[in-house]
Structures are given as structure tokens and as C-alpha cells.
Fold:
Amino acid sequence: MPVEIRLIQQAYKFALDPTPAQARMLASHAGGARFAYNWGNAAIIAALDAREAEKAAGGKPETKVPGHFDLCKQWTAWKDAHASDPEPAEGERRTNTAWVSENFVGSYQAALRDAAKAWSDFFKSAAGKRKGRRLGRPRFKKRGKARDSFQVHGGTLRVESTGAGFRPKGADKGATRDMIVLPKIGPVFLHESGRKLRRRVEKGTARIVRGTVSRDSDGRWHIAVTAEVQREIRTGPSKRQRDGGVLGVDFGVRAIATLSDGTAIPNPRHLEGSLGRLAKAQQAVARCEPGSAGRRKAVARVGRLHARVKHLRLDGLHKATSGLVHSRAVIAVEGFDVQETVRYRKRGKADREKNRENVPGKVRADRNRALADTGIGIARWQLQSKGAWYGCQVLVMDKHAPTGRTCSACGTAKAKPVPPADELFTCEACGSQMPRRVNTARALASRARKAVPVAPSTGETLNARGGDVSPAAVRDGGQMPLKREASTRPRPG
Ligand SMILES: [Zn+2]
Structure:
């Protein structure tokens, strides 16, 4: 089987088990990073205001808008200038900057880089030079509102195990455990095994690029480690994948996915249960007196449940997408705009009521909440990156094609889309009837078969990767527009 070694960026996420003292250090670093971000933001805004004033005075603006390196220089100068400021008098603000040196300097630099990048992205977006939705003006990060997080660069991070002879201060001696060694903070226990990453680093097949430490809504600390990993990439399908052939996948609401072979991958049971508990917990918050201790507790409970739901959902998706890419040569998914669907829900009640004749507001709201929940965007992204690793070709079909209303048996397209409330798809042309989602999955599969004109079961290699048929050639040939999967895994946003 053809195998190629490629360098790809891969994310490893670990829950941390910090000691109480370490947890305080983590919180301090997150607070410091937020402070530095806001400091950089303010410096940029001041420079922009100065330019405006210079323009208004009729001159050419002379003030330079600071970039990342300017901000780092200014930050160091500011910190040094105020390192021995006296204690503030009654009612004055504290200006002493001695606290800055207690934390790792790189965490400030990363925050300043983020501030500079937020503004350059904003200007690019405003000038129409950036893909995606229009970005708003960068805002200040509010304490308690913004997610607690900070970054450290790869050279300062290590993954170790207690077997290597050291452990966090005050930690029990016990079984061997994996640790991440953070600058200034030292070794912090991982809540789970870090063996895979540790072994790769030891063997020299992975290099840690950066780590982002963050606190989840349930208060637990995590680290997301981005590593550059040498991976064996299969460039063609295995026998099992060839036998599996082409599969259409319709990601959905009630089930994670409906497949063109007629089966469905259900949501994990425990996820359903957690969703019910989450709804109850949210009602409890609504019943509490604002500002009360009871309300704080209820909000914390919602936070914990949210974190759990997120975890279960991701877990379910990972299992589903791994199973699919290992057993199929080609997978076709619909390329609809998840952002749009989620935003639709946020557009509010008025809009839903206006459309009540067509689809009851409740159905639509529930459907869209569940859409956001099942993380269709994440699922598609997982399929694409895993497909690229394991020799499965993932085709993202044109989102504007009428897949949902095309009969998968005879190919006749209905004039109007099938309402989401309809469970069955009934074709007026050929009389066939089947579950709506199965029909969509089958229609996707048959479009994929036309786009990849090789019968996988004959044992021929699928040749879209560097062969005669490239998706670009298909597109130029006036057929179905397709998007090719990314060969490297993008950084998780
Ligand atoms: Zn039909």
C-alpha cells in the first residue's frame, strides 16, 4: 500500500491535575495574559487615535501603529520603568509592575501578538482581504467573561513522566504519571496519559510548537499542545476501504449521521441524558434570585454540564468519524454553511414567529440547537483530516446543489425542498419512498460516484490524488464543484 511520510500539525489536548498552588499560578498567568492583551489593545487604539488627530490637524499621520515586536518592546520598557513604584496612596491606582516578572515572559508576548493580530485581521477584513464573515473591532477582554487562557511556545514545553525521576512539589509518590513541564510553573500532572505524544517526542518524530493552557467552564484546566508530527499518510485506499466503496453521509440532529447504506449512527445515550439535565439546570438558574449565592451555584452547575456535553459530543464524533474513514474509500458530505444555520437560531424569536406558517418556531429552534450541538462542522473537519491521514477521499459536495430534494433512486429533483419536519421522502416521479435523511445520504453518494469515475470495488486505485482525475479537472470540466480535503490538519480554533 502506498505510504508517504508527511509533516503535519496535530493537536493533543490533555486535562491537567494541578496542585492548588499550581492552579493559582495558572490563574495568575491567565490573568496576566488578559492584562497584556488589553494593554496591547489600548496601545494600538492610542496610536490609531493619534493618527486620526494628526489627520484632522491637516498633516500626514506620523504615528506608527505598533506591531507585535513594537508592543513587546514597549511592554518591557513600561514594566522596567514602574518596577519600583511606591505603594499607592489611599484612592490611587497601583502602578507598581513587580508582579509582571512573577510570570513567564512568553505568555505576555503571546498575548501581545494576539492583540496585534486581532487588529491586523480586523483591518484586512474591513478591506475585504480576509475570508469569512466581517470581523468587528477588537474589544477588551473582560475578567470573568473572557475565557481564562494563556500560551507558551514549544521550546519551553516538555512532556515527561514521573518515571524520569521528578514530580510536582507536594505530590504523592505513587504510580508513574505523565506531566507537562511548564515554564515558571514546573511539572504539572496530566489527568490522562500523555504517552503517545511523549513517545513521539522521544523518538524525534514530533516537535512541540506551542501549548495553550485554558480553563473550561467547569473550572478544569486543560492544555492543548500543537505539535509538528511526522506521520505516515496512506495515499490510497486499503482493501477494506475499497470494499467499502463510496459512502454518502448526512450529518444531522436526531442521529449524529445517516449513511447511504441506510444505517444511522445514533447520538451517544449519555449525551441525551446530559442534555436533559442541562435543560433542568438552566431552568433552575432562571428561578434563582439574581446575585444570590444559590444562583452562583446553579450557574456553576450549568457550566459543569456544558463541559460534559461538549466532551461527550466530541467523543461520539471522534468514534464515528474514525470508523467511517477506515472502512470507506470515498466519503461524500454536504458542504452547507454551519455558521449560517447556527446564526439563524440566534436571529431571535421575532423571526421565528414570522415564519410560523411554514415551520413551527419550536421545531426550527430545537433543530438548530441540536445542529450546533452535534457539531457538524467539527464532524466534517474530522472526516477531512482523518481521511487525509488514512487514505480515504473525503468529498465536500457543493452546498448549493439540490441534494436534499433530489430522489436518489431516479435523480428527479423536486421543485421545493422537503420540510425538515417530514420524516419521509416520497418521489412523485418514480414513486419510491424512504427516510428523508437516507435519501439525502444516497443522493450525496451518487453525486460522488459521478465525480470520481472509478469503481472502487474493481480494485483500481482512486486517482484523484495526483492521477488523471483531479477535483479541479472535474470542476473545470463543467461538472460538480468539489472541494479537496486539506492535506494537513488545521490548527483548532
Ligand atoms: Zn424518484
Notes: The chain has a mean pLDDT of 80.
